[in-house]
Amino acid sequence: MDRSGVRSSNAQRGFRVQAPLVDSVSCYCKVDAGLKTVAGARKFVPGSKLCIQPDINPNAHKGKTSRRDKSRFQAPLLPGLPDDLAIACLIRVPRVEHRKLRQVCKRWYRLLAGNFFYSLRKSLGMAEEWVYVVKRERDGKISWHAYDPTYHIWQPLPPVPGEYSYALGFGCAVLSGCHLYLFGGKDPLKGSMRRVIFYSARTNKWHRAPDMLRKRHFFGACVINNCLYVAGGECEGIQRTLRSAEVYDPNRNRWNFVSDMSTPMVPFIGVVHNGMWFLKGLGNHREVMSEAYSPETNTWSTISDGMVSGWRNPCVSMNGELYALDCRDGCKVRIYDRATDSWNKFIDSKLHLGNSRALEAAALVALNGKLCIIRNNMSISIVDVSSPDKHVESNPQLWENIAGRGHFRTLVTNLWSSIAGRSGLKSHILHCQVLQA
Predict the structure, then answer these.
(1) How many other C-beta atoms lie within 10 A of the C-beta of residue 28?
(2) Measured between alpha carbons, how far is 98 from 90 in angstroms, rounded to an integer?
(3) What are the residue boundaries of the FKB95-like N-terminal Kelch domain, all occurrences included (predicted)?
(4) From the centroid of its chain, how far is CA 94?
(5) What's the CATH code, domain 83-124?
(6) Which residue among 20, 149, 350, 357 is the one 20 to 30 A from 189 at the CA level?
(7) Helix pair angle (115-123, 83-90), 10° resolution
(8) Domains of the chain, residue spans
(9) Nearest 10 degrees: CA dihedral of 218, 219, 221, 227?
(10) Is the CA virtual torsion 287, 290, 295, 298 positive or negative?
(11) What does the pLDDT profile of the chain (437 residues) look like in tens digits?
(12) Cα 256 to chain center, whole Å?
């Protein structure tokens, strides 16, 4: 007897016909759960029909409790409080304690590993900025450290992935405010790389990203509109110095080439100012060159002579102004005047620290609306540039040593200074970035 005959005979005997469990891509229940509506499912499975029992779980016969049922009976984040109030309490915990919060239970770990928790902190103005320093030690190995400016302590971090343990000439940038990217560079054994990895301040873990389109090291890099740009640099081969440039869009998760530079260049200074990317470096014949890139027009142009002649590293753009250090130990700050096309004196701390490599200012970043100077011995100074009386040569109230040498010293900063400055400094800072979480 055929299958239809069995159904008719069962119906005559009064038995209820049970629809089979759905086990086919021809119904909407097998479509990705991320498609919340039937309309969204129809787009990916054209011609499909709504199944007879759309709420049936194909794995129901295994006796497992569904995720929805589990969520109904799971323990609250904080006993005695609904989860929304518990989250309102947890987001106010200082960032320095978040590593401990992740170890309390799985629910707390998942909460602090997701985007919702830190997005809420940012929207409510509770996000904290930390300084992240990437350093080459005396043995050539790469290490990195995070500084909490609120409690003035250095925080432990997961080790840098092996491919960057001894890399040379790699780039470093921050996307989305909380992702620190390492990209390109030269492996001492394998040569130039296209590899891209990033560290998330929210998960405290390293992740992989799509490789760059071109192998390169000692190149320029910047972030504009949350897109990562790289240009120039070197690569093994006939055309060693590069003029190509490319951009990475994290939303599309892919790299694309942009317009080439006018001439090949190995940049040694770069900054984003007023929506333009300014680069200064060496050409094929070791001559000093400079160019500026506009992402809006996808074109390269020349830079004014006044800016190039007085432009020194490190420098940073903040609140529409371009700042640069004017001495080796970072005790003086200059500002660029676009009207006169010149660099002018801005602030002088009147406290010269010395000319040793340990005291050399390696980075200048914007931290909580102030200029942050980081030296090779891990000492830090903060300069407040928000004073209405800006163009002053000396104002001690604008200058603060929050870590390191001088009148303010702690056990931690003493340790870092002694390690970095012992028997002639060979270790030095390569990159310095600010991450928010």
Answers:
(1) 21
(2) 9
(3) 160-373
(4) 20
(5) 1.20.1280
(6) 357
(7) 70
(8) 83-124, 129-157+314-415+422-436, 159-303
(9) -120
(10) negative
(11) 444 444 444 444 444 434 333 333 334 333 334 434 434 444 444 444 444 333 334 444 444 555 555 556 688 999 999 999 999 999 999 999 998 999 999 999 999 988 899 999 999 999 999 999 999 999 999 999 999 999 998 888 999 999 999 999 999 999 999 999 999 999 999 999 999 999 999 888 999 999 999 999 999 999 999 999 999 999 987 668 999 999 999 999 999 999 999 999 999 999 999 999 999 999 988 899 999 999 999 999 999 889 998 898 899 999 999 999 988 888 899 999 999 999 998 888 888 887 788 899 999 999 999 999 999 999 999 999 886 454 445 555 578 877 653 333 444 444 444 444 444 447 899 999 999 99
(12) 19
Cα separation, 369 vs 434, in Å, equals 12
Q: Strand, helix or coil at 378?
A: coil
Specify whether the CB–CB gap between 353 and 329 falls below 8 A: yes
Fold agreement between 83-124 and 159-303: no
DSSP string for 123-171:
HTT---EEEEEEEE-TTS-EEEEEEETTTTEEE--PPPPGGGSS-BS-E
Beta strands per DSSP E along 297-427: 299-301, 315-318, 321-325, 332-337, 342-348, 361-367, 370-375, 380-383, 399-403
Tokens 């090949």 correspond to 264
pTM recorded for the entire structure: 0.78
CATH of domain 159-303: 2.120.10.80
- Residue 407 to residue 372: CA distance in whole angstroms: 18
